[in-house]
User: Fold this.
Amino acid sequence: MSKIAKNSKQIDDKPTILITNDDGITAPGIAALIAVAKQYGRVVVVAPDAPQSAMGHAITIGKPLRLNHVNLFGDVEAYQCSGTPVDCVKIAVDKVLHKKPDFCFSGINHGSNASINIIYSGTMSAAMEGAIEGIPSIGFSYEDYSFDADFSLAQQVANDVIHKMISKQIPQKALYNVNIPKISIKKYKGIKACRQANAKWNENFVERLDPTGKKYFWLTGEFQNRDKGNDTDVWALTHGYASLVPIQYDLTNYDLLSNIKI
Amino acid sequence: MSKIAKNSKQIDDKPTILITNDDGITAPGIAALIAVAKQYGRVVVVAPDAPQSAMGHAITIGKPLRLNHVNLFGDVEAYQCSGTPVDCVKIAVDKVLHKKPDFCFSGINHGSNASINIIYSGTMSAAMEGAIEGIPSIGFSYEDYSFDADFSLAQQVANDVIHKMISKQIPQKALYNVNIPKISIKKYKGIKACRQANAKWNENFVERLDPTGKKYFWLTGEFQNRDKGNDTDVWALTHGYASLVPIQYDLTNYDLLSNIKI
Assistant:
């Protein structure tokens, strides 16, 4: 009896870890993150049923959502949701877990979310929603966009950062944007704490005619780093480091606020 | 000849003002903003062809966009776009204006975008996209959600703030989140520069069965202000002021960054 009690206590002590992403529940990157996270606790997955890249912090208010159990990750409980990445976090807390998880990890994204990409990224917005809920949260992104990418280095970095958060080697009550460079493990130099680089995308819409002769536009763009600093996430990624940027969601420009006289 | 030259110089000197929103091009709020802004320069409208509330900073990368000229606002040049509010700003710069406008104004939103609402708001994300492009930008939102709302006070505030930005009474190279309270003009006390209140939405999904017996979920929520300060946008709105919050898009948590040792 005491043994059973002890075992169930041990099970209760394991943290509950919510995992989501924006590439969709079938993306290799989320499977790579689940494999890492399940070493640290009870993993529950709620992720979009289709790709939702560049959805930013969109939520679904004008139509209903579907949520279905899926059997994709062995013994890991998983659900696909018809909503956005942020919807997935909200419905996970309210309707799947019925409580806040201990941690929320998002990714591993196929493609960088360094610098201004954080604003457009569904993966980082899901992690930010976790943080707004008060859940220690991390978004992981890997510079390689390919679905055939080798996630070995990304998994190594995710494991390092998750271990540091759970063991409180870095502040736990926080939100981090972690990006992993597309380099060989031999060239990898470690994790660097950084600030967000000041960069933007210069849009360039491709203009074409559809089969009925009507004009359409397709968004493309070119990344422009306007930041010369060697303390940014973009600098870190181009110099062999994984970048770790602590993130906040108070968007007040306090410097400017102090200069306003009305 | 000299008179014509002088006149055309005057026309060239008029600023170009881009106007967008997230409630869609037929929403009364955008017409209210156009009526104010056209006093200050050449207004060009590019707005979603359907409501896009709560789209956050979403952009459309996986499918094409349509852009069509519409004749809704008298002599004001206007286009409806099938994309998100942020798409509208991008396509306006690249394919309509072929340059950056002098100002970008978004709204007037039907419903408050104070505090954490800025994160979810398509109206504020469109203004932020303007700011990322380097365009002085303002998002305007009115606490009244109704399409039958009386926009008199909202227009008065928008006019005040636009005048202050164009005449540089407040810093011009900036992004502002302006919210207007739902009160009578008699009770209105003026504009207050504020910080973003620390608040969140507690989600509460309504669970129902569809006509075929399958479960669906619909997002609802309750706004929770966790901030006791009397210097926030929520405080201002509940005390008879319009709130003006200067906004930035560097999400780095610098306090936390200084505490990280890796």
